[in-house]
Amino acid sequence: MGVEPxxxxxxxxxxxxxxxxVIELDLHLSKDGALAVMHDAEVDRTTDGTGPxxxxxxxxxxxxxxxxxxxxxxxxxxxxxxxxxxQAEIKDVAAARALAEVMRRRDLVxxxxxxxxxxxxxxxxxxxxxxxxxxxxxxxxxxxxxxxAKAVGAATLALNIRRLTLEVVEQAHAEGVxxxxxxxxxxxxxxxxxALGLDGATTDFPEIRRAGRFTA
Length: 216
Hints:
The chain is built from 9 helices and 8 strands. By secondary structure, it is an alpha/beta fold. Helix 6 links the parallel strand 5 and strand 6 (156-160).
């Protein structure tokens, strides 16, 4: 989203061409049950429309401009537009159920990792899709965050790099839980990723990976 319209096919293709390991996207259910790719619950920030996604049909969402003429994609379109592994963030249990149906139908366990801020959504997708890899996301957390990840079967924690400490990383690794940091958009944050021994990082700027090899 740092270089192309957020959550669009154009941005995903750019990420793939830049050589990123995984492409992250966000999923909400439309009024008629489509898995719309958008970060916010409302369309206002990233399109020329207004109102909640949940109150719009897929046809209505497709009429919106998501930036530079891009349209709001659905999850299936992304699957076909790029070949990269995907990390799909779900916002609630209902989205988990819709995503599970697509994952089973298209045999996506090896390609798609599922993440969420909501423990119950992570637990739900794990129950519906045997073998799925899951990620529990947190911006602010308490001392039980590793226990929460283990309780819902999440193999990875995605934590706010601004609040991440070595203590949490060491605790997670001791319990066999991986840790990725978000959002890593500066060289200082990239150095922190390496200093903390993180297993990965999320960025809005694919080029930071190439630059970081020489300066971080």
